[in-house]
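Structure tokens please, single chain.
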Amino acid sequence: MLNVSKLNVQYGTIKALHSISFEVHTGEIISLIGSNGAGKTTTLHAISNIIKKTSGTVEFDTVDISQRAPDRIVAAGLVQVPEGRRIFANLTVLDNLEMGAYTRHDKAGIRHDMETVFNIFPRLKERIRQIAGTLSGGEQQMLAMGRALMAKPKLLLMDEPSMGLAPLLVDEIFTIIKTINDRGTTILLVEQNAYKALSIATRAYILETGEITRSGTAHDLMHDESVKAAYLGTG
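Here you go.
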């Protein structure tokens, strides 16, 4: 589904990504794990064409989208849930969800997907007329995820969905991510909570200072002693 090949990104004289390559197959949850500054968010932004690549290619559904405008990438079914949620704080929950469907024109499909979002996130339906900026942190994360689902993604890029959330809410968010995947959406997950990320992932890649240093099944990486020592707090 997604094929990233020899991707390089440079900020001035600083090389952020060093010729990284990886794949995401239909139906998977792929976790991209690394410490702060490793290049995880840069990778997602380069895939979505929010930032300019120095070189390399990104193919989605066998089509090269490396030079495609971000809104056309969304319309093709590759949608990002940004770090920090980035909801429209002054708009209502409903307005935010409708904004997620801005590339679509199928009114019946939009209504159907709105109900699907409310089934996954019943709290959003309870707060449908509430101003988004007054929601709790967990509810704002749910809104950011729901807004992305309104774009009808084939592949969902998720950037640090557990950031700033209490442990109980983290568990709930990861349960929801698994539910979204079970309903047919492929997921590329960037997450600093490596244990939670690996617990739901199919496969994972380790990113260190802009380079992929290791990859494998989530199960194997979770039980790898060096990965445990570096990212799971055990060794």
